[in-house]
Amino acid sequence: MTPEQFEQKVASARQPLVVEFWAPWCGPCKVMNPILKAASEKYRGQVELLKINADESPDLLRQLKVFSIPTLLVYREGKAVYRKVGAQPAAAIDNLFADLASGKIIQKSGPAPLDRFLRLGAGLVLLGIGITNQMNIGLVVMGGIVMFSAVYDRCPIYRAISSRVKTLFEKP
Known about the structure:
elongated
């Protein structure tokens, strides 16, 4: 699919559009395939699923900055509202489709760009003060924590652990 075809598809979507970037050789993609298919059938007419083979659409991947598969993108009214990288559990996919079908607002994950910039700056200041202040370990650790809070959503270890921790606290 070309970037132009994709933009037309997104613009013409009358319902929320979930886009999955996958490849036939991708193990996690194979795991997600039946999960996405089931959710798509369950919410037919309320949420649309578009599967794009990453191997056949390299220009589109570059334009959308998709660096890993599987990647899910959600579009509502022509605008990207959600992005998730990596295989997701069935419950998370079903919750995503349910939220989209009910009209719930789904927010992009992670801090806003300005917030990210301010957190990185504050963390660097704390880190610098901690290092120049006779290696104050408390300030160095605090600076590291504040800096991590700016980029936590991009950390693969955090993503892997956070989804599992969330499932522990979900009501059955």
